[in-house]
Amino acid sequence: MDKRTIIGVIILAAILILMPYYQKLLTGETEEQLAQADTSGADTLGEADIDRTTAHPGEIYDSARAYTPELTVSADTVREETAIGVSEEAQGARDTIPEKLVYVRTKRYDIVLSSWGGDIISMVSREFLDLNGQPMEFCPSEVAGANLPLVAFEGDRFITTESLHFVTDSDSLLLTETDPTGAVTFAAMLPDGGIIQRRYHFRYEDYAFDHATLFGGEGEKAGIDESILWWRKGLEPSDPDIKGNISANYRIGYMIGGEYDDEKFGKDEKPQFSFDGTTDFVATHNKYFVVIIAPYDGVASGVRCDGVRYSAESFGDYKRQIPALGVGLVQPGGDAPVTRHDLIYIGPRDHEILKRYNRGFEKTVNLGWSWLAPLTKLFMWGFKILYSILGNYGVVIIIFSILIKLVLLPLSRKQMKSMQRMKELEPKLSELREKYKSDVKKLNEETMKLYQKEKINPLGGCLPLIPQMPVFFALFAMLRNSFALRGAPFILWITDLSQKDPYYVLPILMGVSMFIQQKISIRDPKQKMMVYFMPLLFLFLFRNMPSGLVLYWLCFNIFSLVQTLWVEFKSEKNEALTIPSDA
Fold first, then answer.
1. Structurally, how many domains does the chain consist of?
2. Averaged over 225-252, what is the pLDDT?
3. Which of 336, 365, 394 is the last residue of a domain?
4. Model confidence over 539-576: pLDDT tens digits?
5. Quick check: 99 and 114 in contact, CB under 8 A?
6. Are 89 and 14 in contact, with CB atoms under 8 Å apart?
7. Cβ-proximal residues to 124 (8 Å cutoff; 6+ apart), any chain
8. Hey, which residues does 122 pair with through a beta bridge?
9. Which of 211, 320, 363, 432 would give a disulfide with 260, using CB separation of 3.0 to 4.6 Å?
10. Which of residues 303, 334, 365 is at a domain's end?
11. Is 497 found in the same domain as 351?
12. Which secondary-structure segment (H or E) carries 75?
């Protein structure tokens, strides 16, 4: 070793020996205490403890912009004060130098960083539970390799942080409301004598953190052409319907020039994708959570996706392979010193939270067709207000169905009026059917003439269904993609309104209510088959839909049925009053 490296090792040893005492002096909590913290105890929020309306960080992106990384330190200073050299005799450092772990705690996460690669090796949620009821781990262990490596290219050569041993200035970092920000810095020497520094800056309330990288060195040794920051392992399934989650929601997304697009990969297709061009951010997501890498300022120069498929025993009976959709964001390089600064969001795929970053992150949430998205947003907003009052999303859906019924009341009245006129017209229609029973063409012509004469629209009973369709599709998009409805219970066996009814009780009740409604409403014998066909069709279509959506349709049917029976009752009463008495 040269003299400067020996001095650096001595200084590093002193820092590592004294750091636990310094940490204890500041916080009263040591590295071991943080490492052994019980994530299932009082500090951990269970799914039932989450405030679905207020669990959002305040002014997230503004606080992020207030931080400017100090990456102007010279390579000599880094080498002398914090770095350990990777000289020829120290090749394979990860195999010969013990791994050092740094423990970080925020309001949102318990995080473990490693000196091997300066990587994140664990990121456990302090709010959300996984499919097995355990605190959710965002760094899947089934996939080998680093979680957040950075790869730099110089001509035909490349450097990856995964192969480097770093030193750090921290043992642990505990953030609180009174001490809400902090950073952990890793540094290492490159084989050519240059320096690489990785700095993580965390905020207590935030789901996102800053990652800043410095390549420094003497002359042009540390110059690079470009670098790629990867999130390698994707995300594990977050929805009990694992098959549906993977087929519909496992995607990589990217925004280019303000336009968002995404890529989906078939079960036999290797998850690979590459795009070069100005990029606002890249993302990988499952149904409820998303990882986003975005340049802190400006735009990046490309997107990469390179994934694998793996089998995991932790998902019970699901035997198919799970895709790990790794994504990377490309940034241009230059001559030394080269810096890059990224904002990394790892957390809920929640439209309201993501919108606060003012970067277009909320576009990773599917709100349906573009013309439907405003209606979906309106419903999400209204549902959260009602939930803050009622405290149960099932009750909210029932109230919502009543409100929709009231909005459509004018159309419903027209429908009832049309039904009543059809009932009054039934004797004349029967006469026509008897008169032209051997001439179908003539029967149809005379029937239409009768409708025109009496000013009756035979399709009038279908009018309320037309404005119902946008409501239905918007509600479907919301129930399928709203993070607030994740695991939202209703009553008894309905423990998650975003999932299908496990016993098909609601779909059956919906089919029965629709059958009764059709039986009362349809008077034309030609439409008799519709009485049986439509309920069966809807039962089949709705059997695997979110129970919240089926609950809405069931309630709407019941309210429509009550209205129909009331109109029938009033009609019969009025008829009775108009009949002359025999007395």
1. 2
2. 85
3. 365
4. 888 888 888 888 988 998 888 888 777 766 666 665 55
5. yes
6. no
7. 39, 109, 110, 111, 135, 136, 137, 138
8. 112
9. 363
10. 365
11. no
12. helix 75-81
